[in-house]
Specification:
The protein has 273 residues and is an alpha/beta fold. The protein has helices spanning 11-24, 43-56, 72-79, 90-107, 124-136, 182-191, 193-206, 220-232, 243-251, and strands spanning 2-6, 29-33, 60-62, 113-116, 140-142, 211-213, 216-218. The radius of gyration is 19 Å and the shape is globular. It binds iron/sulfur cluster (SF4).
Length: 273
């Protein structure tokens, strides 16, 4: 049996790798990762992936896009769109889903492989959705974070600190994630002007906005003066403040509609739809 862990570089996927190794050993364990461009995947996420893999004595297996110089904005500009027809972000498709399915087709067999995901007990609908989609394609999946017997709750107990990005961001997504809400993008505006500018370039090239307020596009350029006012007023750039409190503070300074307060989602990587 091949045990294929969708190993994103996030803390949950590391716990999954540890649980699977604990239960089945490491001989047939695959830590499958999509290595993202260094400008949008923090160096400490790359460090964390390596540390956990070294702890297990298992090499990282990369299923990455062949053109490794491209980030999420490049692949969207290349396709002249931010989303594919089914509404999925193009970056997820090009940088994660397609390399994942190509890797599975060439390296794994449905008869003797299980694919492991990091969803936990708070995410039953995501688990059901994944079981359905992957099951329809013929793949067996499992979810070690809902196993009754679990050994690991954090990597710090092993002396491996989780990526420092968690002190600010909720998820281990790309910085400047196309699925993220404005709270994430406020952090990008305040701390990563290079990524903010690149995202503006992508909107300009494609002629579409990343964010929408109902059926109305809201370009990064539109948000710039509002974010500048928030920054000047000292609104902290973090997703660690619950979004209700964050936006209650922000609303004292800028107008923003409920619709615009989209909550950041983790990237559903490895997921055909
Ligand atoms: S994490 Fe966000 S930006 Fe990166 S591939 Fe996924 S949806 Fe795209």
């Amino acid at each position: 049996m091949k045990h294929i862990v969708c190993y994103s570089g996030g803390h949950s996927s590391a716990l999954v790798a540890l649980e699977v190794a604990h239960r089945f050993g490491t001989k047939h364990l695959v830590l499958l990762n999509h290595d993202m461009h260094f400008s949008v995947e923090h160096a400490d996420i790359k460090r964390f992936k390596r540390d956990v893999a070294e702890h297990l004595g298992v090499p990282l297996t990369f299923a990455s896009r062949r053109n490794a110089t491209q980030d999420q904005f490049d692949v969207c500009v290349e396709s002249d769109a931010f989303k594919v027809n089914n509404g999925q972000e193009i970056c997820t498709a090009r940088l994660k889903t397609e390399p994942f399915m190509e890797w599975l087709a060439s390296n794994a067999s449905q008869d003797d492989s299980t694919i492991y995901y990091g969803f936990d007990a708070t995410e039953p609908s995501r688990i059901q959705r994944r079981i359905g989609i992957m099951g329809t394609l013929g793949w067996k999946t499992d979810y070690p974070r809902i196993w009754e017997e679990r050994k690991y709750e954090n990597t710090e107990a092993l002396g491996i600190p989780r990526p420092c990005t968690y002190s600010v961001f909720k998820h281990g997504n790309c910085i400047g994630c196309l699925k993220a809400g404005w709270q994430h993008w406020y952090i990008v505006y305040c701390t990563r002007p290079d990524i903010w500018l690149k995202a503006m370039w992508a909107e300009d090239e494609i002629g579409h906005a990343i964010h929408w307020d109902g059926d109305k596009p809201v370009y990064l350029e539109d948000m710039e003066p509002r974010f500048a006012a928030m920054k000047a007023a000292g609104i902290p750039a973090t997703e660690r403040i619950p979004h209700q409190r964050f936006w209650a503070q922000a609303r004292r300074i800028i107008p923003i509609s409920d619709m615009q307060i989209r909550i950041s989602l983790p990237c559903d990587c490895h997921e055909p739809s």
